[in-house]
Amino acid sequence: MENGFQSTRAEAFPAGLRVLVVDDDVTWLKVLEKMLKKCSYEVTTCCLAIDALNMLRERKDGFDIVISDVNMPDMDGFKLLELVGLEMDLPVIMMSVDGETSRVMKGVQHGACDYLLKPVRMKELKNIWQHVFRKKIHEVKDIESYEVIDDIHLMRNGFERFEDSHLLSGEVGPKKILDLMNIPWLTRENVASHLQKYRLYLSRLEKESEPNTAFGCFKQTDFSPKDPSVGFGLQSSITAHQSREACSSFGFSSGEVHVQPIDTEIKEGDLKDIIPLLPSPEARNALVGKLHEIQKKTSGSQIDFSSSVGSVGLDVKCNSFDATGLRKHQWSGGFSDMQFKRQTEPDNKLYRHASPAFVSPHSSIETNCLQPAPSVNAGAPISKMEKESSSGSGIKRLCGRYQTSNVTYLPAMTSTESPLPLQPESGIGNILLSGRACTMNESSSAKSNSFCHSKSSSWGYDQKDLFEASTAVLQSSNENLPVSSLQDYDYVENTVLNNIEFLEYDDLELFAALPGQHCDRLKFNSDYNLSEPVEYPAMDQGLFIV
DNA sequence: TTTCCTATCT
DNA sequence: TAGATAGGAA
């Protein structure tokens, strides 16, 4: 199994495991060194925690595991444990003569992968390799999850071509979408099926919005948690376009805020092509009206159109300004958040739970650049999910389809100040206000967090951004959720068991030097004769995969 | 024959 | 609720 070890060491594993032992008691150091060497491990000993830390820092990849005493004069063992965990991400085993549960718990909470009671048993030392192995397995799992992102990038590229090919002009069929996405494992049936769902959704949305929602008007219902138009699953962004005249409007999905100067004027032909795709009669009528304006070349009127196929979705944004530049309509919608099952590759397990989804059109908004919509900026109620998130239970499923995301409401502002650092001169500016719409999946880990923590720098539906947003979820959630650093609870139990049995030693010289209370607890057992090399049982991966 | 759409199943 | 599939229509 590829687990990250260098090939030669991997073959010999667990023999050659590089162990750093830290204990201020020289006698114990010698005992442990000898025992560990009997296990065919490479042993380095250190009397001071600070020296151990320096050694670890100097030899970044020089050790596989650390065994540290809890009580040391220069540095608390827990502190060392914390630092090693933070800086080296190495498994650390704590050891102490004190087996008090609270103490053991503290060790585990600080990130110890095991807590051994002195005197340490040979059996326990023999099995410390499992902690290294377990960690490697987790790392491999993380890497596999990263590969999902690579394929998501593949989808993004497909959508970019989708945009480049002007697919928006004319009817969009599953075949064409499929061809242009150019994703090998995707089938036309996949696309068709989800297109069907998407259209069903649109028709439902249209029916629901007919009685009270006119195009261009911002309604409170736009932010209903059950309204998919607010955003789907990963799709969580607020898009604010800023015209050259510094006229701003805000399109809401949720979560992210993007500010972008609009510099692409719509062409008449483009508009004609877009109109049939609009989800509602109001939207179509609005654009038809604007099309007439263009055709008439009415002075002072401007329609800005930006079509963006984000990384994983087709997104259409239409913005229209009146002659004064004070008001505009915006419609935004398209396909996004595409996740498809990989049917044709049964060996691929990464997408087993993935599924396609077409994102809904975003809520349409009419606003005035001089007087931002009060319902948006001031006193707007927080959506249900936002409340849940802030109350500490806001972890949502990552792959929720047709499911609303959080809406992040901007703080109240006056006409003279903008809640967003608009950058009319310098181009695109993005602000991630909040990304609590979704969670990492079950394979998420601290490693995943570090992988994803870089900030978003693009706008639109960038799947990467969404993952980053997901990370932000976790990071922000940490403040609210009782996140425990307990990594493997079974260690706690294991530690308790340590108290039951006694150790096995056969080196009487060494034990003669041990403090009396230690010797008292010893039981010599010929099962672990130090003169014989230790044999390891065949590794059963199933035993160690959590 | 291919593609799309709809209904139905899972 | 959403994806898969079957069957009819163009």
Tell me what you see in this structure.
Residues 1-5, 147-153, 158-170, 212-284, 286-509, 515-533 and 535-546 have low confidence and may be disordered. The strands form 3 sheets. Strands 2-1-3-4-5 form a 5-stranded parallel beta sheet, with helices on both faces. A 4-stranded mixed beta sheet has the order 7-6-8-13, with no helix packed on it. The chain has helices spanning 7-12, 26-38, 49-58, 77-87, 101-109, 122-126, 129-164, 174-181, 188-209, 268-274, 281-296, 374-377, 384-393, 446-452, 463-480, 489-498, 508-512, 516-520, 541-544; strands spanning 18-22, 42-46, 65-69, 92-96, 114-117, 237-242, 248-252, 256-261, 302-309, 314-321, 327-335, 362-368, 429-431. The longest helix has 36 residues, at 129-164. The chain contains 19 helices and 13 strands. It folds into 2 domains: 7-136 and 502-544, 3-Layer(aba) Sandwich (Rossmann fold); 165-480, no CATH class. The chain binds a DNA duplex (10 and 10 nucleotides) through helix 9. Keywords: Activator, DNA-binding, Nucleus, Phosphoprotein, Transcription, Transcription regulation, Two-component regulatory system. Transcriptional activator that binds specific DNA sequence.
